[in-house]
Write a structure and sequence with these properties.
Strand order of the largest sheet: 1-9-8-5-4-2-3
CATH class of the largest domain: Alpha Beta
Helix content: 25-40%
CATH superfamily of the largest domain: Type I PLP-dependent aspartate aminotransferase-like (Major domain)
Strand content: 15-25%
Number of domains: 2
Mean pLDDT: 97
Number of helices: 13
Structural class: alpha/beta
Distance between the termini: 27 Å
Low-confidence stretches: none
Radius of gyration: 21 Å
Number of strands: 14
Order of helices and strands: HHHEHEHEHEHEEEEEHEEHHEEHHEH
């Protein structure tokens, strides 16, 4: 059995090596490293894949969120609601722009933002909501959009972990990231669609927002050396775009492999102490960026140690709620408002998940999980 990797980027590369190598060499020989033809090609192809009018590539997923917020013309002190249980970038950009982050609890079965808690958090200063499609599963976007429309709020979807997932919105199947006013994603190497460095993108069907964000990512320029906006330097380079264009053609297959691996895990793992991930909506609404379990007997850290000692890497996403992070602590937060997040932060652990996992590896991993669970 091959060594188990949390994410097997080398194995994935080996399957597309000739295409990637040629694409990289073509960019190098062209000398067009910034805003070259490959960036435009990838942008157009991603737009078609997502079924969205505009894709604006940028340097990384955090920049994508920041630029999306910048495009909304919010004022210092305006409030933005987001989830307490996610990576820090979602709240980081809010704070960086002088806006006020408002964190709310999550659903215990999906780990996604609890739409019931969103409405209770709205004040006259609330301007936007950032739902995160966590671990690859779409949040309850219909309810979130209903709340946003009722309260005249913007919605920015953080789709960094769920690109390719599908949501049934008003009886129409649409890709996650295309339902709100703006969607964002990350192309960090470990993502379902990842490059070999850093990268991100912003999506929208709003023509005016698209024009604004295209300027914002390029120093506020539409014409070289003429700055119409206060912008940032956030561009996807041509080599990364060329690589992503190849991987985009394989994304549905990658996601299908992840769903199949999740199914195998769920069939093999059997313990009263383990709560397995669910697919809340239709099968294609979850693309399993992570396969995240909950160990409910208080021995999560011992489980992780046991797996690591037996050659199985695993991750804890996330060990500390955002409202308890030193950078984002606030006296306005009440611990009882975050009962689900506080609970799952001590229970969750994620098993290796990628498109190159073999069934032999999964059997080995599942047997170890079952072994520890039975002993504990």
């Amino acid at each position: 059995m091959n060594k188990i990797q949390m994410v097997d980027l080398k194995g994935q590369y080996n399957n597309i090596k000739s295409e990637v190598d040629k694409a990289v060499i073509d960019v190098i020989e062209s000398g067009q490293f910034i805003n070259g033809p490959s960036v435009n090609d990838f942008s157009n192809n991603l737009s078609k894949y997502l079924g969205v009018n505009h894709v604006i590539p940028c340097a990384n997923g955090t920049d994508a969120l920041q630029v999306a917020l910048m495009a909304l013309d919010l004022n210092p002190g305006d409030e933005v609601i987001t989830t307490d249980f996610t990576f820090a970038s979602s709240v980081e950009v809010i704070a960086l722009l002088g806006l006020k982050p408002v964190l709310v609890d999550v659903e215990i079965d999906t780990f996604n933002i609890d739409f019931n808690k969103i409405e209770k958090a709205i004040t006259n200063k609330t301007k936007a909501i950032i739902p995160v499609h966590l671990f690859g599963q779409t949040a309850e976007m219909k309810k979130i959009m209903d709340i946003a429309n009722k309260n005249n709020l913007f919605v920015i979807e953080d789709n960094a972990q769920a690109i390719g997932s599908v949501y049934r919105n008003n009886n129409e199947k649409v890709k996650a990231g295309t339902i709100g006013h703006i969607g964002t994603t990350s192309f960090f190497p470990s993502k379902n669609l990842g490059c070999y460095g850093d990268g991100g993108a912003i999506f929208t069907n709003d023509d005016d927002l698209a024009v604004k964000m295209k300027g914002l990512v390029n120093h506020g320029m539409y014409k070289r050396y003429y700055h119409d906006l206060v912008g940032v330097n956030s561009r996807l380079d041509s080599i990364q775009a060329a690589i992503l264009d190849i991987k985009l053609k394989n994304l549905d297959q990658y996601n299908s492999s992840r769903r199949n691996s999740a199914k195998i895990y769920s069939e093999k793992i059997n313990s009263k102490n383990i709560i397995k991930p669910i697919i809340k909506y239709e099968d294609d609404s979850h693309v399993f960026h992570q396969y995240t379990l909950r160990l409910i007997n208080g021995k999560r850290d011992q489980m992780v140690k046991f797996l690591n000692e037996n050659g199985v890497p695993c991750g804890i996403y996330y060990p500390v709620p955002l409202h308890n992070q030193n950078a984002y602590k606030s006296k306005r937060y009440i611990e009882s408002d975050f009962s689900v997040t506080n609970q799952i932060c001590s229970e969750v652990f994620s098993l290796p998940m990628h498109s190159e996992l073999s069934e032999e590896q999964q059997n080995f991993i599942s047997d170890l999980v079952n072994e520890f669970s039975l002993k504990s």
